[in-house]
Amino acid sequence: MTEPDPSDDVQVSESGGTMQRLVGAATARPVDLTLLEPERNVGMGWTPAGSAPFLAPGDPVMWLYGRGIDPMRVVRDDERGLVAWLAEDAETVAWHPADGRSVRDVPLADRFAVERAPVVQRWRGGGVLRIAPTGRPWSVWLFWEDDGSFAGHYVNLELPHTRRGSETATRDLTLDLWLDPDGELWLKDADEVEAAVRAGRYTQAQADEIHAAASWARADLVAGRDWPLDEEWIVWRPPTDWAPVTLPDTDVVRSARGTTLPR
C-alpha cells in the first residue's frame, strides 16, 4: 500500500492563502474574547448584535471590518443573527498596501507592517451571502460557481458583531476555515497568524485565542451543524431587482475615492 503524500494535506487557495486539511474530531475550549476586543477599534455608541431594533429585508447595511466597508443588503435580521447579501460589482472600501502591491504580493515577514491606504474597489467573483450568528466569533460566507453550482462555505473568523443603526461592525481575525461541499474541511492562513505574532500585530495569547475560536467553529458549527449550516441557505438566491448598495458619503469613503495607488 502506498503511503499518502503529506503534501496533499496542504494546498494554496485561489486567493494565495495556505490551506491545511483538518481531520479527526475538534477539541473546543472556552475562548477569551476579551483578549481580542482591542482589535475592534470602532469607537463608541455600539451595542451587541442580536437585539431590536432589527433591519428589514432589503434594507441597506454597512458591514464594517475595522475601517473597511462592504455595502450589503439585508436578507434576514433577528435575534439569531444577520444574513446579508453583497452583490457582484458592488463598490467597497478596502485597505491595500500603499505602494500598490496586492496583499498577497507582500512577503509574510512584511505583510503586517506595510503602510496601508484606503481605496474604493469593486467586489469581484460573483455575489456572496454572509451570515453572522449572534455572539459568535465568525461569519459564514456562501459562494457559488459561475454556473450556479455551490462552491462551499467560508468561515471567516472575526469578532462578534456590534450594531449601530444600519451598520454592523466586526474585525477580521486572519485565520479562516473552508468547508468543501463534500464535507472536506481546511484551515486557512495559519501561517499569517504566525507572521502577525512575529510582527507584533498579535500577541501570542491573542493568537492562541484565535486558534481556539477556529476549534470552536469546527466543533460547534461544522461538526455540530449549528446555525446557519442547519438551514438550506445553499439554494437561496437574491431577488432579481436587488441592485448593489452604494457606499455612504463619509470622510473615509471620500478619502478612498481620492486615493490612486501606484501600479
Task: Give the CATH H-level superfamily.
Answer: FomD-like
Number of strands: 15
- Mean pLDDT score, rounded? 93
- Morphology: globular
How far the N terminus sits from the C terminus, by CA atoms, comes to: 51 Å
| Helix content bin | 10-25%
Strand order of the largest sheet: 1-2-15-14-11-10-9-6-5-4-13-12-3
> Which parts are unreliable, with pLDDT below 50 for 5 consecutive residues or more?
1-6
The quaternary organization reads as single chain
CA-based gyration radius? 18 Å
Domain DUF402: 104-221
Keywords: Hydrolase
GO molecular function, one term: hydrolase activity
Region (Disordered): 1-20
Descriptive overview:
15% of the residues lie in helices and 33% in strands. It is α+β, with helices and mostly antiparallel strands and 263 residues long. The chain has one domain: FomD barrel-like fold. Residues 104-221 form the DUF402 domain.
Helices and strands in order:
Layout: E1 10-12, E2 18-22, E3 47-48, E4 60-65, E5 68-78, E6 81-86, E7 91-97, H1 108-111, E8 116-122, E9 128-133, E10 138-144, E11 150-158, E12 162-164, E13 167-170, E14 172-179, E15 185-188, H2 190-198, H3 204-223, H4 251-257
InterPro entries: DUF402, FomD-like_sf, Ntdp-like
Pfam families: DUF402
Protein name: DUF402 domain-containing protein
